[in-house]
User: Which sequence fits this backbone?
C-alpha cells in the first residue's frame, strides 16, 4: 500500500506523487467536487469535473418537516449522507428551529464524513458502522425490538436498509430528505486516464448522459455497491476502496498507480 504521513487537519505531506500526470474524472455533485479535486491535486493528479448528479431540495417538504417537528418521538435517527444532513439543516432553518432537538434522540451516521457534518452542528453521533455501507448499518445498529427509527435518505435510495431494520423488529419511518437528479448531458473532452464513482447513482447517470462510454478508462469505485453498478453496465473496475470514503478512494487510486511492475 502507498503510505502517506498525515499532518494537522486535512493536509498531508506527500512522500511521492503517485497520481502525477494522471487526469482523473470526478462525477460527484458539483458542490462536493472541489474538496475531492483538491485532494487529487495534493497527490499530484489533475482533476476534471463532469457532475452526473445534482442535489435538489424537495418540492413538498411537509412530510420531512413533520418528522423533524416530532424527532424526539423516535429512538434513533439515521443519516445516510452528508447531503441528508445539509437538507435537514436547511429545513430546520426554514422552521426557525435548530439541531437542539436532536439531543433527545440517538443519532446514527453511515460514515465519518456524515458524522463530521453532524458534529459540526453540535450533534453527538452515537453510532457509525465498522464499514460504511447501508447493510452494515442494518446489521450493527444497536436497536431493540419495537424501537422507532427515522431514516432520512435520498428519494432514489434503495429501500433495502429500511427493510433490513424492520426485519430486526424496528419500526422504521423512511423519509425523503432531498432529490438526486441527473444534470443535462453536455459535451466533454474525454482525454482522461481515470474516472471515479462515489455512488451507484453517479454510475447510472453517467451511462445515461454519454452516448458512448469512453475506453480505456481506469474505473475506481468508492465501495462494492458502486462497483456492482459499474460492472452491470459493462465497465471494468480497476479498484474498489477498502475504506468507503473519499480518502479511501484516493488511497485505492494511489495504490493502483503505484503498484510494483510485474
Assistant:
Amino acid at each position: 500500500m502507498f503510505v502517506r504521513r498525515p499532518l494537522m487537519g486535512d493536509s498531508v505531506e506527500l512522500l511521492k506523487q503517485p497520481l502525477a500526470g494522471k487526469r482523473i474524472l470526478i462525477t460527484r455533485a458539483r458542490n462536493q467536487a472541489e474538496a475531492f479535486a483538491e485532494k487529487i491535486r495534493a497527490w499530484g493528479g489533475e482533476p476534471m469535473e463532469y457532475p452526473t448528479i445534482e442535489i435538489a431540495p424537495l418540492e413538498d417538504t411537509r412530510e420531512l418537516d413533520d418528522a423533524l417537528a416530532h424527532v424526539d418521538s423516535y429512538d434513533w435517527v439515521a443519516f445516510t449522507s452528508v447531503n441528508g444532513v445539509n437538507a435537514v439543516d436547511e429545513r430546520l432553518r426554514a422552521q426557525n428551529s435548530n439541531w437542539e432537538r436532536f439531543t433527545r434522540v440517538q443519532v446514527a451516521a453511515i460514515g465519518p464524513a456524515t458524522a463530521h457534518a453532524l458534529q459540526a452542528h453540535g450533534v453527538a453521533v452515537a453510532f457509525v458502522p465498522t464499514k460504511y455501507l447501508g447493510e452494515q448499518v442494518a446489521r450493527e445498529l444497536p436497536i431493540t425490538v419495537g424501537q422507532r427509527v427515522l431514516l432520512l435518505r435520498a428519494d432514489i435510495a434503495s429501500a433495502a436498509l429500511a427493510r433490513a431494520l424492520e426485519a430486526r423488529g424496528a419500526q422504521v419511518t423512511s423519509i425523503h430528505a432531498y432529490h438526486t437528479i441527473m444534470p443535462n448531458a453536455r459535451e466533454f473532452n474525454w482525454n482522461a486516464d481515470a474516472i471515479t464513482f462515489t455512488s451507484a447513482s453517479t454510475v447510472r447517470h453517467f451511462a445515461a448522459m454519454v452516448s458512448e462510454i469512453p475506453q480505456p478508462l481506469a474505473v475506481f469505485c468508492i465501495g462494492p455497491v458502486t462497483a456492482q453498478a459499474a460492472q452491470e453496465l459493462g465497465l471494468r473496475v480497476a479498484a474498489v476502496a477498502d475504506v468507503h470514503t473519499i480518502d479511501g478512494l484516493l488511497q485505492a487510486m494511489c495504490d493502483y498507480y503505484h503498484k510494483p511492475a510485474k
About this structure: The longest helix spans residues 30-42. The chain has two domains: 5-53+182-257, 56-180. Residues 1-15 have pLDDT under 50 and may be disordered. The domain at 56-180 is CATH 3.40.50.10090 (Rossmann fold).
